[in-house]
Amino acid sequence: QTKVPTLMVQCACGATTVGEWLPGHAKGRYELAVEKISRAVAKAEAEIDRPIRNKYLIWLQGGSDAVNSTGTDGYKTKFIQLWNALKQDCGLKKCFITRIAKFKDSEYDVKPIIEAQEELALENDDIEMVTRVTGYLQYYDENPEHYTIQHAFQGLEIVGNHDHYTWEGYKLVGDTAGSRVGQYINTGVMPELEPEPWPDNVTSSSQKIIAD
């Protein structure tokens, strides 16, 4: 998209709450992520013999915070702590959030986390909502030929509620987010977001973003 060589450092871990990513947490996820980022950047800069100019965070997380009832304010507070630490330790300029989606047939309420992510993008100049495409993914019973979410994971029998992306789903999310980040880097303007996937349950911050 940018026509410029790009280094991507994968630091993800599934089924984590935002609090588990904070510096000093017993699981050490933050420290490992910073180590991976720092070593990868140093290696790349040595090979190209110049500093990397722009460093960004692409974030897709939040389902476990819905399960654990982190809440809107709790999620926002912890995310800002994490983001401020990453900016300082890794020199990141901008955070791009891929908004999470609702669970299907689940007692867990994802709306507070969706609201938190929308409000983080609305209230902070260095945080952008990059896409809501996860809200448009479909299950097998909705689209048998091209379903992008599956209840069972890796063909295992369903135990409880499992909402996992198929490979086609992952590719759609990655292609969408990556293309939009590229457009933003090229132009300095985020392309218009997708319409709210759940128009009967629009978050207040989403309404503000659409109105703006």
Topology at a glance:
Layout: H1 29-48, E1 56-59, H2 63-67, H3 72-90, E2 94-98, H4 111-123, E3 127-131, E4 149-150, E5 164-165, H5 167-187, H6 204-211
Parallel strand pairs: 1-2, 2-3
Antiparallel strand pairs: 4-5
Helix pairs in contact: 1-3, 3-4, 4-6
Description:
The chain is mainly alpha-helical and 212 residues long. Helices cover 41% and strands 8% of the residues. It has 6 helices and 5 strands; from the N terminus they run H-E-H-H-E-H-E-E-E-H-H. The strands form 2 sheets. It has a 3-stranded parallel β-sheet with strand order 1-2-3. Strand 2, helix 4 (111-123) and strand 3 (127-131) form a beta-alpha-beta unit. 25% of the residues are buried.
